[in-house]
Amino acid sequence: MDCCQETHRRETHGRVLREHFGIAPESEQCVIALAGNPNVGKSTVFNALTGLHQHTGNWPGKTVDNAQGTFTYRQKPFLLVDLPGTYSILAHTVEEQIARDFICFGEPNATIVVLDATCLERNLNLALQVMEITPNVIVCINLMDEARKKDITINFSVLEKELGVPVVATAARKGEGLNTLRETLYQVSIGARKSNPRQLVYSPSIEEAVQGLLPNIQRLVDHKLNPRWVALRLLDGDKAFIESINRYLDFQPNWKLQEEAAAL
Ligand SMILES: Nc1nc2c(ncn2[C@@H]2O[C@H](COP(=O)(O)OP(=O)(O)OP(=O)(O)O)[C@@H](O)[C@H]2O)c(=O)[nH]1
Ligand SMILES: [Mg+2]
């Protein structure tokens, strides 16, 4: 990408954040999304990091501007966005669409996926989905105090190795693990800690179809979206996603790609 393209990309990104999500980060500020299943402690983590008292009820509408807070760590300013709780980000509900669109088109510098330590298996589904969109993921395993009460033990180093992203244990209500979370966020945000997120491998026919679509998608979405993720959504026949691409990235409707995907 040359510097004109980079400037254009930044301007488009700034406009998307402002116009679609009501967020206007200052130039040095790192934007961090907080995602997770309902009731896993996202807002508790949000409040602990920002010192705010975010309402811990349902997401109030289609914007995220009332769920943002700031904090500074090691002189680095962060803007944290508390996303609505979702089991998935395949956009079957308004909440899923908000979370998916923010992670995809808001392009946060990093996304913390908060998981419930007492039901990891179910919660990991969302983490794997987010890891398909972006490599900048931190997995925060919360409710560790509850897990301890139930004699659940988690091998964090194995999990971190398997997932390929940083994994942090917290009991946010007690303030446990939050310093490690801040430090990990900092390391990821300054690029000192690189991730290599595990990617789900689908059946050979789907993988072949993805490979067939990638060249055209790469041309279309450029650096703006993860082409593999777009290919998977097209193969899924996700029309709402194509509409989101056109809405956020100002593309002319391009149904040809979808026709191509449908023919595969
Ligand atoms: N025991 C324990 N309770 C916690 C912890 N973190 C959060 N909670 C409690 O879990 C409940 C849900 O926390 P929230 O922070 O509202 O969860 P959320 O993920 O924001 O929920 P939604 O926004 O509704 O999806 C609250 O009663 C919190 O006090 C923790 O680490 N340990
Ligand atoms: Mg909440």
TrEMBL record:
InterPro entries listed in its UniProt record: FeoB_Cyto, FeoB_GTPase, G_FEOB_dom, P-loop_NTPase
CDD domains from the UniProt entry: FeoB
Domain of life: Bacteria
Record-annotated FeoB-type G domain positions: 29-191
PANTHER family in the record: FE(2+) TRANSPORTER FEOB, FERROUS IRON TRANSPORT PROTEIN B
Protein's name according to its UniProt entry: Fe(2+) transporter FeoB
Taxonomic lineage from the root: Bacteria, Bacillati, Bacillota, Negativicutes, Selenomonadales
Gene name as annotated: feoB_5
